[in-house]
């Protein structure tokens, strides 16, 4: 169940953020029926993040521990990122997609690091819980997301082309994570 939530949460939010960032790169503050599309997007993103957090909390209330602490922390970070994005869109009337992607990359890095630390603690307490390959993949994922966030920070004053290249890198890292989760889910069939 935890894996399914992770796939849905990160997959959908990641694709929405990245698609939005690339689609709106040349049209900040685009207006449509009902007002500013960036502000509307930010509102939906926040509502979705809050709903996912509530869902995970309800699942843990029904079956304690079904959603791990690292996953809950990740969902809390998603809510915080969505709130910051919404505040920025409201203040400026347009979305700063680079800043959103950077916040997402930093949240993904924090989540991957928390996951790595959690599985290490579990493995130390209950040796053999995870395969050596699974531990290696989780450690490498933490390394990859940390490097990706650091690269994003380096591009703060870079050209739009460099930033868009990095946005594609964020997408590639997310695809890699989803592929790994899909393989894990297929193992449960």
Write up what this structure looks like.
Strands 1-2 form a two-stranded antiparallel sheet. The chain has 189 residues and is mostly helical. The two termini are 13 Å apart. The protein is built from 6 helices and 2 strands, in the order H-E-E-H-H-H-H-H. Helix 1 packs antiparallel against helix 4 (97-125), helix 2 (37-62) packs antiparallel against helix 3 (69-92) and helix 5 (132-154) packs antiparallel against helix 6. It has one domain. The protein has helices spanning 2-23, 37-62, 69-92, 97-125, 132-154, 160-186; strands at 31-32, 35-36.
Low confidence ranges: 1-10, 14-33
Number of domains: 1
Q: Report the count of strand segments.
A: 2
The assembly state of the depicted protein chains is single chain
Give the distance, in angstroms, between the N- and C-terminal Cα atoms: 13 Å
Major beta-sheet overview: 2 strands, antiparallel
Specify the helix fraction band.
Answer: over 70%
How big is the Rg?
17 Å
* Relative strand content: under 5%
> What is the arithmetic mean of pLDDT?
81
Topology order in helix (H) and strand (E) letters? HEEHHHHH
User: Strand order of the main beta sheet, please?
Assistant: 1-2
Structural class: mainly alpha
Work out the helix count: 6
- Broad shape: globular
